[in-house]
Specification:
The protein is α+β, with helices and mostly antiparallel strands and 176 residues long. The protein has six helices and nine strands. It is globular.
Length: 176
């Protein structure tokens, strides 16, 4: 019959060497596994606990929320459909709008598109760069081409909006 200790001694020289080797490998693997699991859990926890900041409407507006402020604009899909934008009608600062109310209009060489407010709020700032460079909406519709910043009146209205995945899915089904 085969003796475990003689097999270990033959492979590792002594049982103590085997124990030392096994403990080091085992601890290193456990530590590595713990680090990997911890990172994965932390990413998962962060993703789950971090609220969404970018929301979309089916009429192709977006709002990017930071705290109680939202930056509003039209989606990349909307600017592509409009074509070359030549004028953006900016709202007045301190004007108050209800959800769905027209806050701006965007004029292109093809058409004029109304911009509805995704959530109700008070306009706190407008993107003055659009007065001189309306094509900024074409260049960066969901970034530097924002139209106005609002103070949210009712943050619970965000629950009625789409996240990026749902908006993309809407676009896929809307174009079929």
């Amino acid at each position: 019959s085969w003796d475990v200790s003689s097999g270990i001694n033959a492979e590792y020289g002594s049982f103590q060497t085997f124990q030392h080797y096994f403990i080091q490998i085992n601890l290193r693997d456990r530590a590595m596994a713990l680090r990997l699991v911890s990172r994965a859990c932390l990413r998962q926890l962060t993703a789950c606990s971090r609220p969404l900041s970018m929301y979309y409407t089916k009429s192709h507006e977006w709002v990017n929320v930071t705290g109680s402020t939202g930056r509003v604009g039209i989606t990349d899909h909307a600017q592509a459909a409009l074509g070359d934008i030549v004028y953006v009608d900016l709202p007045d600062v301190d004007a108050e709008f209800d959800v769905g109310e027209e806050v701006s209009s965007v004029e292109s060489v093809k058409a004029v598109g109304d911009v509805a407010l995704p959530v109700s709020g008070i306009v706190k700032a407008v993107n003055e760069e659009l007065s001189d460079t309306p094509t900024l909406v074409n260049q960066s519709a969901e970034g530097d081409g924002w139209i106005c910043e609002i103070e949210l009146s009712d943050p619970s209205e965000l629950e009625d909006l789409l996240d990026k995945a749902a908006y993309d899915e809407f676009l896929d089904t809307d174009t079929e």
